[in-house]
Design a protein that fits this description.
By secondary structure, this protein is α/β, with parallel strands linked by helices. The protein folds into 2 domains: about 5-265 and about 480-510, Glycogen Phosphorylase B (Rossmann fold, 3-Layer(aba) Sandwich), CATH 3.40.50; about 290-470, Rossmann fold (3-Layer(aba) Sandwich), CATH 3.40.50.2000. About 35% of the residues lie in helices and about 20% in strands. The strands form 4 sheets. A 9-stranded mixed beta sheet has the order 3-4-5-2-1-8-9-13-14, sandwiched between helices. Strands 17-16-15-18-19-20 form a 6-stranded parallel beta sheet, with helices on both faces. It has a 3-stranded antiparallel beta sheet with strand order 10-12-11. β6 (about 110) and β7 form a beta hairpin. The longest helix is centred in the C-terminal third of the chain and has 20 residues, at about 480-495. It binds adenosine-5'-diphosphate and alpha-D-glucopyranose. The site of adenosine-5'-diphosphate has 18 residues, from α1 and α14. Keywords: Glycogen biosynthesis, Glycosyltransferase, Transferase.
Length: about 525
Amino acid sequence: MSLPRFSVVHVASEMAPLAKVGGLADVVGSLAFEQARRGHRVIVALPAYQSLELPAGWMRRAFQGGDAPWGLSREPAHFDIAEPPDSSLRVLLVSHEGERAFFDRPGIYDDPRTGEGHPDNAERFLFFARAALQGLKALGEPVEVLHAHDHQAAWALCFLRTHERSASPFASTAAVFTIHNLGYQGIHDPWVLALAGFGRDVFHPASPFEFWGRVNDMKVGLSFADLLTTVSPTYAREIQSNGEFGFGLEGVLASRSADLFGLLNGIDDVEWDPARDPLIPGHYDRDRLEGKGVNREALIAECGFPDAPALPLVGMVSRLVEQKGIDLITQAEGELSRLEARYVVLGQGQPGFQDRLRRSAHRAPERLYYRSGHDERFAHLVEAGCDLFLMPSRYEPCGLNQMYSLRYGTPPVVRAVGGLADTVEEFDPRTGQGTGFVFQRFDAVEMVGALRRGLAVLRQPDLWRALQKNGMSRDFSWRRCAEGYDRLYALARERVEAGQVRTLESLRAKTEPAPRPPGR
Ligand code: ADP
Ligand code: GLC
């Protein structure tokens, strides 16, 4: 039986190929395109960042000026519609025309001059959420599913269920919220509540807004959504189980356990296809792997590594933050340098991690090559040219690079957390089953052990070929997993049609003790 088709609006702070910091962009972009291909009517609401450039073939037209409620007054907004070639998808670009130019400045989340978050991020994304709904009202098309991603978009669901609940496009809208990363929650001082149009009366510990005396955007999204998703089944369990993964919201998440689903992300397997990838010099597939060697040579040359001895190449493409286990790499530096391997790291992030990598690469340029900055082409070359790919994450909601590396015949070495645990199986040389090398504890010795197992299999060409083929045969495409969202949307809509939506009043009734019967 085929599932119904919906008019879906994604509200997100990133979307590939228009604005990207990490995997959120890849996921929002490729999910939205796949949904449009499946016959849904899809709009993505996205801030009109200064850095946003439309790829060839896209069209942009001014749609309408307007404004958005802002505390007791209003802030000017402007909306454009961008449309890609060969898809019915539309992007609603939200500009802020006010003096402080929330989006018309360098940097998506961080100010590139300081390397720190923009000091007014609370206001920037609050405005984005409020203005996105104004833009949708101006479009005037009924919205059946409003799907917000991560804390930057969370307020859209609150406004949907409060200030905008009687606006006609939202008459029967289902609210879905996807958690991509609980390590970033958007926690601010309570004055933002007034900008959002709420009084202090709604600010108490059981309310959707309050979190240890401050306002928590992620909690707002978790509270008002009809259904919640996160990006892998294991992460869905982990975030309810303890503070290490739940970052203080584990109780809120456990209380919504019945409404929380773990849907594994897909990848864009057209963009990430070693047989066709325009960003790499050698093309190959699982039956013709010779082209991989061409990429290897190109990578060695680009990194300036000596031709001999021919040592295995271990790659990493990552934001350089604690989440990604960069401290494990720095702890294990001595051990790693004693392994028969060379390392290629592409990534930007915390200045401390960048400096450390820079210094190590300077000390041993024949062993470690480090490139900072965002470099899409080099990311593809690292995936294609390396032998092994390393992801020792502390936590990992899903992770995309391990799926790219499986597809590129570059077996991943991963810690068994979140989506890494759901996508990589330890290779067993006796049975020839498995796709990579997995370690359990966040521990440098365990990580080096897994890397050693990988290097040992690499020395046995037949086993290695079997391992590569296993990984390259896995299907992680959105075609396979978009159906999970179709089902979820259908369920959320059933709830809305049955009148089961979460409003400020219904949430208050749930959390406040029942009044005592009279006379007692
Ligand atoms: P996260 O979203 O937590 O950063 P993911 O594995 O989900 O992790 O996605 C990371 C995405 O960002 C991948 O597409 C990866 O290739 C890309 N990426 C990360 N750092 C860089 C970089 N410096 N240059 C190019 N791409 C990068
Ligand atoms: C987040 C997570 C990452 C996930 C991505 C897309 O940035 O850190 O694990 O793959 O979102 O969902």
